Amino acid sequence: MPTPATSHSPAALDRLARRRVRAKLGWWSHATIYLLVNLGLLALSWYQGRHWAVFPALGWGLGLALHGLAVFWMQPGSTGMERLVALERARLQAQHPQG
Length: 99
Known about the structure:
Blueprint: H1 10-48, H2 54-72, H3 79-95
Helix pairs in contact: 1-2
Keywords: Membrane, Transmembrane, Transmembrane helix
InterPro entries: 2TM_dom
Domain 2TM: 17-75
């Protein structure tokens, strides 16, 4: 059974495209909420005369970065995923040469 990344049927390409667009829109939504909330926390900490807002921004920022890595680099069909698949395929072919 072919994977969506290697299938060339229009329906399979449409499913993959829709899945990738939904994931990217999800990341952009996450990034927008991150920015708005952390700007509010920054304003609150500035008003209090303290600098505690950096801690939630760093923690949540790590989560946002990992989400971005999964969406933009590790999704099926992305360059990062395809590069890793090609490397693994070459490694397996070197270990198990055909006849």
